[in-house]
Structures
1.
Amino acid sequence: MTIITIFIILLPILAILAIISRKHFSKYKGELWFVPQIAGRLQKMEVLYGRSLEDATRQYVEQGFRHFLILLAVLWFVALGIFMIPATDPAAGEIQRPEAGKSAEKITLQLTDGKDTESYILSVEPRELTEEEFAAAADRAISQVREKMTGRNADLQHITGNLSLPERDPSGLLKINWDTDRLTIISRNGTVRREELEEEAVVTVKGTFSDGIHEAGFEEKVTVLPYSATETAIEKAIRELGRLEENSRKEGKLLLPEQIDDVNVSEKKTTTKNTICKLYIFLVLFACILAVRKFSREKEILKKRDEELERVFYRFSRRLTLLISAGENIHSALLQAAAVEERYLLPEVQYAMNRIGTGAAEAGVYARLGRSLGLKSYIRLFSTISTAGPRGSSQLMRLLDQEVRDAETEAREEAKKKGEKAQEKLLIPMVLLMIVVIGIVIFPAVAGM
């Protein structure tokens, strides 16, 4: 847990430093391969060119960089959690018995005699130690407990505070029952009471180590010193606080003194680190969810845009051809043909016509307009206009007529595909309906048998 806590604290610090230094990252954004793709996506979602497109792209890249750091932290936590999960693959029909000192495990079995099946819960007890294993474990546990039972005392011959008497040995294998020959001075849980002592007291502490089957005894003599010999100012304050708490148990509140002799008394406020860590992880996950939602919305917008442009292409190309054949110039025909499709097509066409009005070359503007719309049908159409427009209206009309015929064919094929998909979706309900009908027909015959 200590290592995990360190990483939880370290990761946001690294992320903040990286975000602060994003200006160095932005210096090289123009050389990165994915920046033109992002600019193209933004240009499709909203009509942006020139400085406005550069600013939107820079903001998008920096925001994506921050979100990437957050996602990286989340993936690190998930990978760490997966790594800490133990992988077990027991052989078939083989149940791993719990190790000695562990709790029993419940295994659900299925019993079948050919006719009846019944579930049975088998309690698998932990493995029992042999006498040799228990003797070795008891010797090791006694040695470890003897070293740690002093607690915060200097040694066992100068006891002034509570002893450390654990209920199990450090390995958790053996259970320990404690007892003393003077319970009024040292209790079974190691609490030392020396308020009434006037001289040193020797107490025998006894421990019984057991695995549930075997037992081993342990004794140790300790010397408890009276308060008069060792009591410090803080210990005196602790004893006084204990007396105040005991005398005020019938009251609703405990009033703490600000000072006991030369010792200042104040309540220490603590915060829970686990709560902070959970809140941190929740915030990171929430930020990742927002990022995923954002990309999903953008993808859905682009999908709807492409579907809408694809759907209106036949009508647009047909109106454009009719207007040019009626004598309209290309500039006016494009604006009139796109005027009906106001949502996506008209803003792009208007921007392109404005560029022509400022002196830009028509061929380049038409080619760029096709690339901005991004669909093969529009790229092909505006490429035809940019190349055939200067050569004369007759050749342009012939090519536009061919584009209209191709668009009509594609529209028919698309309608046919949608019909086939609709039929596939209706297939499952039809099968279910047929099964119900068959059941209704054969049920009377089966029930009468």
Note: The chain has 13 helices and seven strands.
2.
Amino acid sequence: MKLENVFRFLSAAHWSYLVDSRAPERGGVFLVAGPNNLKSNILEWSLEQVKGNGALIYSDLTLKQLAVIRSEIAAGKHHTLGFPEFEKLYARNPQVSSNLEGVIKAMVAEGFSHFAFEDQRLAVQKARCFVLAAVLENVYRARGSAWQENGFLRRFVCIKYTLSTKAREILNESILSGERVSFPPVLFLPTSPIKDETTREEARKLQKIIGDDEAYMQLNLMRKALVVMKWHHKQTNGRRKRLTPMECIEDISEAIKPQGWGTLDV
């Protein structure tokens, strides 16, 4: 799969809040790979371009920080949270880690309202956001079963991959020359809400890629991302020869399938 297509999908997932959809859930994406596979770089670059448009990046996060930004997320000031090193959320007291996981689980789906220390009788606006996280392969394997059982993992599209030999050569050359790897541009900002015109056939293709007929949140996220990508494709039609939105998703589909694992070309 091509790095450009991963960037297109991640950008579209961020802008998915602009899609006029009956499904309010935002969902999330896990970039799963071993060390030195550019997952944190990919995450940071894709969100760095939209930090002024509702994206926040945290190397670590506490419940106190979440309490501060909850209202801003609920008000629509922030739409995406990025975690370049998701394993750091678990490098603390297990009960605190469990609470953080629960908050994130709610924020990508039904929405998060109250912390345990707050008066549950008082009405507060629910906070929903898209979450993009870089996850080490060993963390994914160690916690995957528990995440499946508590429903956490079913809320995330997992892009599992390893860098190709060519990509590693390019990375090594960039290190020797002291230059950064050149990343593709991300999608630019849609100007208004986008109508969901996904066809039944397209939805079936996405569902087949996910490989689970009941993974509704994953399907809704991919569907919204496809809508954004189709909108962007129309805006740039004729300017540059590139894959169609569905072809772009199909290019990264092997990395998304439950038993699949992609090879990433830079």
Note: The first strand starts at residue 19 and ends at 20.
